[in-house]
Amino acid sequence: MFSGSDDEIPVNTVGKPDISRKKSAELYEKSKTYFPGGVNSPVRAFKSVHGTPLFIQKGDGCHIWDADGNQFIDFCASWGPLILGHNHPAVREKVVEVMQNGMSFGAPTALENQLAELILKNNRYIKKIRFTSSGTEAVMSAVRLARAYTKRDKILKFEGCYHGHLDALLVKAGSGLVTFGESSSAGIPKAFADETIVVPLNNRQAVDEAFAKFEGQIAAVIIEPIPANNGLLLQTKEFLEFLRESCSRNKSLLIFDEVISGFRVGFEGAAGFYDIKPDIITYGKIIGGGLPVGMYGSSEEIMTMISPDGPVYQAGTLSGNPVAMAAGIAQLTELSKAGFYKDLNNKTSEFAGSIQRFAASRNYKFNVFYIGSIFWFAFTDQEKISAAEEIDPSGMEKFKIMHRELLNRGIYFGPSGYEVGFISSVHSKVDLEKAKRAIFESLDLVFKLPKA
Description:
452 residues; alpha/beta; Aspartate Aminotransferase, domain 1; Aspartate Aminotransferase, domain 2; eight-stranded mixed β-sheet; four-stranded mixed β-sheet; 15% strand
């Protein structure tokens, strides 16, 4: 563990040779003939960092291997859901057991009941749920439900929060505190974006102005209670309580998008962490052990609006898929064990704290933000970043260098400086010490390289 002495970690002013990406590069060239940009999700294309994307061949524990045989300690964890690491024995064995009987029926199975009971018995904030096939689908369904329940159309969201690629929420803010959404993607009708109001995070005045300007029109306020798709923009409990009170006062619903924070900062997610009851909560692939799955939940009263009980239609052939349910039962059973989150969060706190102390000892303009087992590296001297406009975009060039040096040292992070990292239960002390040393060396390179 780094104690703060400059003498312990020598300054390395020469980067390590780049790892071989020959096979990954060949696969990438071929994939570009099949898929737009060669990928099936944009950030995978490595456009924000150096080199071609790595094609991953295998994962086990906290390690992954690419097509060239390079081994990495993984802090991406399939963008968060692999809280038990890759190929966890309990998850794998349960999936294999269930697959022997078939992989999809488009009909109810007992596995859906088992996973639902496990979730609802350990979550005070929801009484009924509906499984979907992705987090995006869960959010889309939650928004439709909120509109039907309130008989209103407008949705208020926050700049810097990502809620999947549904049309109504794939929007960004314009100038001013309160603005209609401006489409962030081609193909979204202006009429859709016009039903979305976008305001800055951590800004009570903007929220108050929105409710005043659109009195009686706002169906719901949707927020990532722990915004983690555009950096880690931690909000205060007081701001989230303010949103709860504002929604109650204005007869709007509060939606917590917990696709990332759900089951990450605790079994009850951010709702439990802050002890705030939203009206609807959405969750993502962590409840399926990393397999394609999502979920939304609410009170019995609100959920009775969902078909076939009510008029809000939402369906899916693969909703409640038995393989995903099996993986979810195995994973959430592990997460529900006493002490799981305490141990995981303590591990993350020590890891982040060591890196922060090292950066401080060197007077580097660098901060580590973290909550639970989620962390984010920011090239800034700001001790708090709670809104998207507070992020210094120049830090992304430094992250490019850091990402490359970490890959060359066997450490894998998501290929964007705006993405967060995750600690899993299988990151051992040895793994984390190796990762810290690689991070120390990479930071030395970032800050010692001569300016162009």
